[in-house]
């Protein structure tokens, strides 16, 4: 790009960074973020969501950094963290994370609940799944087809 006189913008940096995250090349991600900042672009929620998705171990540090920079976690960030924790079978941590997020004023949506419920079912924690299902219904949250299919089987 640079050879053709085209300068990367924030979107270009984010796309490159997301690709490196998917490939597990976190050192490269750091370089892209540094170049992004050098070019005058600030990391945004998309930047942090990609990094969190690529590196769960650093997720909470990155979320703290987001807060210091005035970027609030959005529902996508919340759901990304919950999903990654469930994939790693850290269900207790995923649930505790949602409790803390709720206390901070974040609202759990059908994706959040569905991710936790499916995680519980996949790990033979049916009672926890059913408790969340009841909580979800009490709050008037409509579930996805995927979650309902777990109850049929």
Automatic annotation (TrEMBL):
This protein's UniProt keywords: Repeat
In the record for this protein, the PPR repeats are positioned at 9-43, 109-143
**Record-linked InterPro entries:** PPR_rpt, TPR-like_helical_dom_sf
Q: Highest taxon of the source?
A: Eukaryota
Q: Does the keyword Repeat apply?
A: yes
| Coiled coil regions in record | none
* Protein name as it appears in the record: Pentatricopeptide repeat-containing protein
Organism the protein comes from: Arachis hypogaea (Peanut)
